[in-house]
Amino acid sequence: MTQTAPLKAMIIPVTPLQQNCTLFWCTKTMRGTFVDAGGDLGKLKAAAAQQGVTIEKLLVTHGHIDHCGSAGVLAKELGVPIEGPHEADRFWIDRLAEDGAKYGIRGEVFEPDRWLVDGDTVTVGDLTLDVYHCPGHTPGHVIFHHAPSGVAMVGDVLFQGSIGRTDFPRGNHADLIAAITTKLWPLGGQTAFVPGHGPMSTFAHERQTNPFVADRVLAGG
Q: Is the pTM of this model over 0.90?
């Protein structure tokens, strides 16, 4: 008899920027979360209903409009708390309304119920995920890792074949490279990750092929 995986997930691209919102849930309790509910809330709620998932909280990796512009709206609609990002991204969240007007995306300022720091854990149903603070793209960016499943949700830290931009206010390229090499790589090469945009990949694949952070690139080879 095949055992059901403890965590199931589906990626739902939202907003004109096609940001990967992740619906994931505990298969034992059917309680779940959205990571980075940036917009298109009707689409998100329909996906949860279709899977039979009860949303118990929202998780946020960082304060950019496409990742959390509608998180506050959805949290109020569902009556659930928001956890994340790190408080260093407060200044991004405080400007969601003006950024929304600039990008044509709904943006509403919110106050997370819990700011996260490196070493925290978050729970979803019976699942426990580890939180890693990974600054560089934004100063308060965090990622979520479920070690038993070998899956990480890394927001805009790392992509298949690329890395997060660091030319935004308070971005820092050196911090981003350090976060990738000291926080992500130790999680193991077989770890599959959901990036903030584009297709999934594994850390091993990126260490071999990524033009910015492959081992040979960082070694100067």
A: yes
